[in-house]
Amino acid sequence: MGLNPGALPDFPWDSLESYRARASSHPDGIVDLSVGTPVDPTPEVIQAALASAANAPGYPTTQGRPDLREAIAAWFERRRGVPGLDSGAILPTIGSKEFVALLPALLGLGAGDVVVIPEVAYPTYDVGARLVGATTIPADGIEAWAGNTDVALVWVNSPSNPTGAVRSRDELATVVAEARRIGAVVASDECYAELAWVEPYASGGVPSLLDPAVCGGSHEGLLAAYSLSKQSNLAGYRAAFAAGDRELIRGLLDVRKHLGMMVPAPVQAAMAVAIGEDAHVAKQRATYGRRRDALLPALLGAGFSVDGSDAGLYLWATRGADSWLTIEWLAERGILAAPGVFYGAAGGRHVRLAFTATDERIATAVRRLAPSR
């Protein structure tokens, strides 16, 4: 197994630059709804935790501070319906994107192995497979890969980026059962789980891969990835973690020790506070909900249909045209979105609009989307 950077596609966001320039030429400036980066302040309680741990002359542990791992285990029980998670089965990561991209390599995958990814998917799942020479099967159901013993890794993403779709416990359990039958690892990207907007998930919670009703009480062969970037405005901290099968986590830990992939000690201290304090998450969720409630009807009024979008920070919208034509239509109005084709051919008639911009920019987008009179 060797990494092959030459197998990577062009970085998709570079192709947006001409549309960014066009949107930026609007007299009132650009409304950038493309990337979905947080813009609200990092909560003060987290900033204080970071500052208090700033005197950190020694190396941090790759495995993570015990108090951090215990706080994560408590969060899984409190917020995700996963009781009794072993703190030894938790690993902090330097953001979730590096974990997604490097997981095939860290698991030792290579040519001949198959990685299943969602049909409409965050591009990094495909990038990780390409890096090691593995092939991908885009599939949301199990029919396309059931019984295929070449499948070594199955990615699920719930809530989905970009579509906002949520997998039910029964759907996840079906994936787990088939993956175990053929000996594949299941990895679940759950980074938007605290941001559900429709029932039953808004009040009942988004199911986790590690939920006993999904996995039968065993985490064998399972990994769940999570990030604090969105729920706690910590994108700049690169604060995330993985949890699940203790033996898989131990193997990932061993490799990461050799590579020096350590989350900085002050960030670990801040993470422990962030994951243990729910009030700031509820406050940020309310802020995003207000922005979503403004942008959604504006899109519908402008002739868009919005599909999925049950959770997460995006609206998955279409005007029934090729995504690049819609990107151009929006750019003429000073709005930048992400074309659905970034996420696979199946997304080619959609665009993804983030509602992470400021209240003022969201209000500006709403005005620009209003039909001309």
In short, what is this structure?
With 373 residues, the protein is an alpha/beta fold.
Instruction: Kindly state the percentage of residues in helix.
Output: 25-40%
The strand count comes to 13
Report Rg.
20 Å
Shape: globular
The end-to-end distance, rounded to whole angstroms, is 61 Å
Oligomeric form of this entry?
A: single chain
H-E order:
HEHHEHEHEEHEHHEEHHHEEHEEEH
Mean pLDDT over the full residue set: 94
How are the strands of the largest sheet arranged?
2-8-7-6-5-3-4
Structural class: alpha/beta
Number of helices: 13
Itemize the secondary structure elements and their pairings.
Blueprint: H1 17-24, E1 31-32, H2 44-52, H3 66-80, E2 90-94, H4 97-106, E3 114-117, H5 124-132, E4 135-138, E5 151-157, H6 169-182, E6 185-189, H7 201-204, H8 212-215, E7 222-227, E8 239-244, H9 246-259, H10 265-276, H11 279-301, E9 305-307, E10 314-318, H12 323-332, E11 335-336, E12 338-339, E13 351-354, H13 359-369
Helix pairs in contact: 1-12, 2-10, 3-10, 4-5, 11-13
